[in-house]
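Data card: per-record layout.
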Amino acid sequence: MSYRPKLRTPEVLEPFLPYLAPGSDSFPEEKEAEELAARLAELGRRLRGSPGRAADVVDVLLAPTFRGGRLQPVEEVAVARHPSLQIFRGRTMAPDLVLDARSFAEQLRILLEVFREVTVAEFLITAIEADPDKGLTSTDVRYDIVGPGTDAWRVERSGRWHMRWRRGADGWRVVEWTATAHLRSSAGAPVYAEVTTAALGGNDSFRRQLTTSLDAWMATIDGVLTRDSNGHHGVSVGDADGDGLDDLYIAQPSGLPNRLFRNRGDGTFEDATERAGLGVLDDTSQSLFADVDNDGDQDLILATSAGPVLFLNDGSGRFTRAPDAFRFERGLQGSPMSMAMADYDRDGFLDLYLCVYSFYYGAGEGKAGTPMPYYDARNGPPGVLFRNDGHGHFVDVTHEAGLDAGNDRYHFAAAWGDYDGDGWPDLLVANDFGRKNLYHNRGLRDGKVTFEDVAAQAGVEDYGAGMSAAWLDYDNDGRLDIYTGNMWSHNGQRVTSQPAFMPDAPPTVRELYRRHAGGNSLFRNRGDGRFEDVTRKAGAELGRWAWSSDALDFDSDGWEDLYVVNGMLTRESGAPRSHRDRAQEGTPEFTSGVPDDDLDGFFWRQVVARSPLTRVTGTPYDDAWRAINQLLIHGSIASHQRNVFLRNDGQGGFDDVSGAVGLDLDQDGRSFAVFDYDQDGDPDVAVMAARSTPQLRLFRNDFSPRGSSLAVSLVGRLSNRDAVGARVTVETDQFRRTKIVQAGSGFLSQHSKELLFGLGASRRVIELTVEWPRGRKQVFSDVPLNHRLRIEEGGEPRPEPFRATPALPADSAVAHPTEPPSGSWLYEPFPAPDFSLPDLSRQPRSLSDLRGRPAIVLFWATAASASRTALSALAAGTEALAQAGVGCVAVALDARGDLPKVRAAASGVTTVPVVLASDGVGRSYAILNRHLFMNRQDLRLPTVFLLDTEGRVVKVYRDRVDVAEILRDVPRIEASPAERLARALPFGGTFHSSPGVRNYLPYGRELLDQGLEAPALVAFERAAYGNPSASTLYRLGTLLVKSGQTAKAKAAFERALAMQPDLSEASNDLGALLAQGGDLPAAIVKFRAALATTPDYPDALNNLGYALLLTGRVQEARELYEKALKLQPDFPEALNNLGLIFGKEGELERAERYFREALAKRRDYGEAANNLALVLVARARPEEAIRLLEAFLETRPEFENTYITLAKIYLAADRQREGLQVIERLLQRNPTHPLALEIVRRVKSR
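The structure for this 1246-residue chain is written out next.
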């Protein structure tokens, strides 16, 4: 059970909440799309319940006037007739509407009769068009139905339907339904068997760490040690210990150690992390195994948040970090993302390209701002090319090599490949928000190797959300083709096709936006330096939010297939309801978590659609990014997107057999690695999805009977030792196949450097050719099939027959998630907000009373039985706690009206002070808990905070109270930084960069959003100390002004201006402080400085006007007020000040009008109320003035000057008793009010 107070809507979200629901903005069709998707989802639920219920669709979905076409193709072609996999593609569909509802139901029955059970029934609306005149809405729907078959292991039916709908009294019903594409596939036996638990489950680290999702870990580890939980962490394979078997290395977020799993050769892996010295705790996105020093063993390079890190292998599988291995020319300007290696200059040493990305979410919004324009953003950080100097260093040669061209994008992935066959490796870079780069290696010229970006000339700019890059020879013509991962979004396809989408953009730009939602890209190498886009013709576009997208020949038929891992953020906890329902303060909510709506449609409607056509700042598009990033703290986007597997038909086309093959995993995938883990000659797959459980999954290829195959391992001598960049061609009696040795491909992935050639029905190898990276070419003719070959440069092949390890039994179920520890030590103590509340016997209790000794604060609620148990456990341990010098208080988070329930629940508790939280205390601690951990979780009940002697949270206990554990922890509160770090981490490991400093800025901002200014001030003071910036200091200054600390506020504004002299807000507010202190000349200078930076700044215009008015420059002041009101007609302060001018000039009627307008604009504007009352008195209407002020005080009793004005009006009218009564009301609120006391003294002395 969790506590979730009704929070005010964050300011950044307010303008966008009206548009969260589909149809609430410029895209009304999206409301219909949502409703129709709900109807299709209902169909899916019925089919998943029982395929035999297909006939129910007649009563549930079809209109009485329904007409439909055949769902089965008129003609189909057999793409594959293998005993283990059969594929039939519809060639001709029936467009005629010849079936009534009952006949059509039979078509559905036939479609589904092969299913024993339906596990997937997915219906995605890719296009929608409304015809209001006819009352019809047309949709194009991509369907995918998967499940166990009646006589097959897995069966899949997919394709496209065209459906026309009409809304009736009972909702939407289908009036026309035809099939436009159809594909059926089935696997008679498992193609890929999951062996995750069998292979990895014997490791305690796997069970305790990798069966827990990142969201769960981010709710457990101190947020100062972690980053986000986006899941950008990959898997790599390489032979870490030199035993000839590929091992697995798993990247993890900050605070969790990366893991090395050693292949034991018997089908299982053992954790070798600690022995290898590779328990790196730094945030790591990718790793690469490579022999960087050509000494015969695999070294390791990591892409960490602090930059690339090199670990050198001593030859026995033990690694040591090489200090200062990477030397930047300009420094890292973003977040390292992925890497790929090649010997670009052919000097025999592997070089590295590092992709660098810029994130723009939350308080960590990148300095470059949002990607703009969305379809072609050019404000990303530069990627970096490092040249291996052969002496242990990687030197930044980006500029020298000519890679500055086009190097201003959001780089996600890179891959090296010699596409033109000139012997020099070229570089493909996949960029988010726009075009790809294809850097052609121009070879050695004038002593330097340089590159030229030829993406446009080559025809591979490929506008899209580039997230993956891969080279492959999909058509076996010997030339390297390109496959890139982008974004396939049914929501995006609908929105970008509607007339309301960017109506002012040129048609070419609108088409590029449609391309952004259109999926992955496949480019065929024409052999003349150009590529042909064959994506649609080949049927290769389907991905989803496609991360690693790469090739493998799963069935060893000799043709490269494609695998795509998908999804972004799938969360089941739901966004805070305050965001959805705009809840304000009131009764707290106790929630168990509910699934949240996916924000993908909102993203296209409200973020993408707002993008300017050129780069401009301060636009609604920027605001929309901030809004969706706020929503995504808890929300989902591109959720439940299954992985895609496309089989190559050998004729230039691909078929989606994801469900039949069994690799259509529903998880937020990021990376996969291909290797022959069991040594049987076919490709197995390790899939990394750090946001899911388990994070790592291993699939053994059980396709049988498979074709012939060959495994080739190369060892360079003159070339780099790994032979990365070598091209191997195998010619058989059937075809010719070409592959290249790579180190880094796809996204955050590294496949085995051993090349697996599926050779299909080949009976013999005619010729095997190796083109080595440094130019040598070797041709071998005596090569046996179904063997492993090891070839050293200049030597002969050494064949060994495949020796499959004993087959482990397939997992019976996915590994069960493991819950992280319920207690969390903080690395950096967090100040707890003070409070003062009466306990159940009405004795005051405050947090400050507990300072000077350790203390615990229990948060509980009567509605949770675990909370009541925790309260009893705390009461039972009170004596032991007191003996240890530990104070305690129990804070009930029930509603104020539930005080009797709290008293009843605590009736037997006499030794623990129990208080009922005020709304502010409940909200402040809920917000504190949100910011202790990265994923902004709700406050679980019960929760106990252990405080140190300074009142700072040092440990959090959830779900229970264990007094014995608390007593063991109390002596450990005082600890060194090293001890605090060790206990704050769930596992051992090493940080190779300094742990971060807590960023109090987002905490302070959220407190401000909720009107909790006192704790917000503390948070901003800490933020200004730990991460000083001009904006933070400015915000701190405004809070100090409100708290009356003007000297500190002045210092904060001055520091802000020292850092950013053109920060007009700081100049303006500093001027206001100076004016209040009586230094009008200095104030005027600051106001003018603010206006010099921002001429149309209403508040500065108003403030300068007021300062000039006080110095007698009335006309100048009036002009400034009028300009301010022209810019902001509803500006109450300017209206009030103009009223003052008219009042001074005797124009009382105009003065009254302006004061009334100011008060209408802001009902709590006390100065305007006072001024209006004085004008009314001057116009001989004192009774009206009295009524005005009395009414104002009823709603704003805290405005003390109004009492004074009202009392003076009474006294001036010789109504002394009433005047003194008003003063008495003021003195009850503020007994020391000096002016009130002076009035009483004067009246009584008369």
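Known properties of this structure: The chain has five domains: 2-19+572-631, 50-189, 193-568+641-701, 823-984, 1130-1246. The mean pLDDT is 93.

See the next section for split statistics.
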